[in-house]
Write a structure and sequence with these properties.
The chain contains nine helices and eight strands. The protein is mainly alpha-helical. α7 crosses α8. The longest helix has 35 residues. It is globular. The protein starts with a helix and ends with a helix.
Amino acid sequence: LSERLQHVRDMPLAYCLSTERCEAIATYIATTETPLLPLSWSDEEIELLQPSPLYKVVEKQRQQHLDDCRVLGMEENEMRRKFRDAICIVNSRAFVGRDDVPTMVPLLDLCNHARGPQKKNLSYSWQLDGSVLVQSIAPLHVGDILWITYGARSNSHLLQHYGFCLIDNVEPDGSSNDTLPWRGVLLQVGPKSYTYGILTSLLGLFSGKGDDTCDYDFTNAEHEDVNWEDVAASATSNKVDNDLRALDVLTAQLEDSLLPYYKKGDSVSRISQQCCILLQSEVEILQFYVCVCR
């Protein structure tokens, strides 16, 4: 829903950028290089995303773009291309302005993304008059790269919306910003505080219902001579056995999910660098949980 809402907000701005004849906007567009986002990739390049879940996301995004073009009456391929390029520009360059309105900020949108070990050297804030105040937060020298942060984003998000991935996409606490949707659970690598709840949810996918109960009939009123310690031990034992079975199934399922990545074989090394980084980050997430289960 959030992705769709963001798309609805981006569309008017993209439409304006692709159709406006204002000289100032035309000059700005002329100075921006259309980012190579998956939305603008060829069919062959899109296939390079397999088996990442991003593949289906991008396929859906491409279909949505065609639907939007039909709604806007864009029949000519050139008009559709300009609108697609404008969507890519807004996706990769727009800032969330006041009242959550996507806003283009020339020059500031040239800054690179810093996260984790890489420190940003600029900060910016929105002023009451709608302007943006940009300040240095570290010494700057001629030729320095200017860094801001786009937020804690996964490589999947970075590739879809900005056209790049990070090899070392981690936070100072050791948690990874990369995520992987798997069977309705969002996998993430990090300290126990991040991963314990995820592992619990994963086990819940394969735990049999009712297998962790004990054999005692609590509806029987004649239980004065019951050894409650034995009852508790029986219930605990059944639950442990059930969890161990679930763990075995979970491990096997995770290993099966790794196979499509491995089957790409040597072809993986020949695809674009950004796809390689994305696929490798997803392999590392799956391998992490396989190791945890073992």
